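Review box. Two proteins, two foldings.
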Amino acid sequence: MSACNWKNSYSPTPDTNDPMSQIQKLTVKGFKSIKNLDDFALRPLNVLIGANGAGKSNFINLFKFLAAVAGNNFPVDVQKWGGPEALLHYGSKTTPSIELEIQFSVSEGVTGAFENGYCLTLEATEDNRLIFSREEPMVRRTGYVVPKRYSLGSGHDSARIRTDKDSPSATVSRYAMEKLQTWRQYHFHDTGDTATVKRMHAVNDNLRLKPDAANLAAYLRKLKTTPQYERSYDHIVETVRRVAPFFNDFLFREEDTEYMQLEWTECSRPDTPWKAHVLSDGTLRFICLATLLLQPTALLPDTILIDEPELGLHPFAINLLAEMLKEAAESKQVIVSTQSVELLNNFQPEDVVVVQREGDASVFKRLDAQELADWLTADYSLGELWQRNVLGGRPTR
């Protein structure tokens, strides 16, 4: 295909063997600004809007926290984040514990359909640690009201779902741990001179795209050179060209080497290689986002979390970003926060969660299309309604 006379001929092929696995409901009590969020339903696509400091980032960071719970170094991670006083809602004197409960979507088991879940309570200790006062994997057969809960004890500072091997709860523990570890929070904000995305990295560092795109070149190379991923690579390149018409293709050298960095060529000078530092910040961020959201479905994490992805993007690129987010949400769960009116205009009311600070706590409300029907039939966009403070989520005194 001629790089400068390309046509948008890509037609994505859904991966029907990749099951949808997502968070169905979430209860959060006592985590940072989230004082009490009870049985909050999540959809495949969740777009958080709200003023600075309302709690959008805290909601997204909650998933990073839960992934760390299932990780190898949770006690160390707690200290890196400032200890219990930085994680508990207004500190341990106000909030002695964090309570979390996750209900996952329905899964088909050998004996029928089940809804698995995981709940835990973490308490602060006098020596500045968090310990589990409750840890319970749970399972509910579809049609039953009350789930069966399995207690894994109390007093420990590392999750026991990691070592739950032979007990009656082992299957549910393994399910919960695997789901928590598949979540990924991505941030492509750093595009400065020392940004990791611009540095050399190992050619074989390509198992998955890293949260800061530090292995972007190696990952793109894998997509281009793996036959079953080549169509996704073409889709990424074609989408980048829509935002940056001067862009020709990424460049991958044939010589045998252990390390590489991102290189690309222009349409007008296909024989001249350029490095990442020549790209504008917005173009480089868009390349990272396109690679993340348009990669093969089988390689995507079950839940994708992105905080303010629109930073530095042209309005046209923001509209393309919205299409990519919606495409990813057809097969995976997407949770994104935004300050962009342009991005918000691309979504349906039911996709949007308004985050507001009421008193000392973050409050979350999903938009209702019926409640907004009169406004929407009057040809107001969601972005205009947000600017008029009809939706909430604006700075108030």
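Next protein.
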Amino acid sequence: MSRASSLRLYITSRILLAPLMVWLATTIVFILIQAAPGDVVDVKLGPNAPEALKDSMRVQMGLDQPMYIQYFRYLNQLLHFDLGSSSYTQGQPITQVIGEFFPATVELTVCGMIIAALVGLTVGSIAASRPNTPIDTGSRLFGIITYALPMYWFGMILQLLFAVKLGWFPQGTRFPLTQTAPTGPTGLYVLDSLLHLNFAQFFTSVHHLALPSLTLGLLISGVFERIVRVNLRQTLKSDYVEAARARGISEFRILTAHALKNAMIPVITILGLTFAAMLGGAVLTEVTFDWPGLGNRLYIAISQRDADMVQGLMVFFATIVVVVSILIDILNAYVDPRIRY
């Protein structure tokens, strides 16, 4: 089988698995929501509503029907791209909530991932090229500390220091309420302000985004640092690296042009899955910084016992993880041909 044919077969098999993975994730979410305590009718009408009115509402919503009928009805909704509506906010469609809050999560996630990748790859690469030195020891401590620090605690400490005490950054929110927020096709304030060449809005957006994205990026960078350091150190001991050294190639070129590429396979996987998980709602970061993203909205829905909203958002998050996982598999297959066979 040729390389092109094996790659096509590999990509096709991964794409065909996507509906199955989404279905499994959807089923698990449905079962967990049904098993959770609470009653959606109580959320809509209040616990003190007459029982007759509650029974009428259950019949209207189909909650009086057997579980398997409710399950197949929900699957039919999903096939028509209908995630349902909120049980708490007067029937607000969940797709509308996603369109309103998801851009903020994307903006925070992208900036956090850029910081995490730059810091993690840089620190890990330097440590791997200088084994058993103080730099290597410091890199290990950095990875352990950033991985172990609680997100909410670290975020509050940074807010107290840089926002409250020093006043360098704003405390919470995505944009000042007293100013007009950027508008545009993407919903990303930084990008939309640049598209309109409104540099005042751009710098204000970056100013509000800096502290939460720095918090998120630094804590995640420790994971990348450890993976890069371990895999790159193993790669630097391989035979082809020793052969490159014997030919007189500089250590910097060996590191950047030979070793780093082969050490990036597991790093790409972790980067992608972490990015997908963060798109699924960086809940702790968004809640800590009062960031109006989808993770914060999920937290509010859980607090309000809005089961329909929680279920719809979780299905959306699961779909994101599945899609990104497939893209990671395809990217890995391009980088390393051995994966296709």
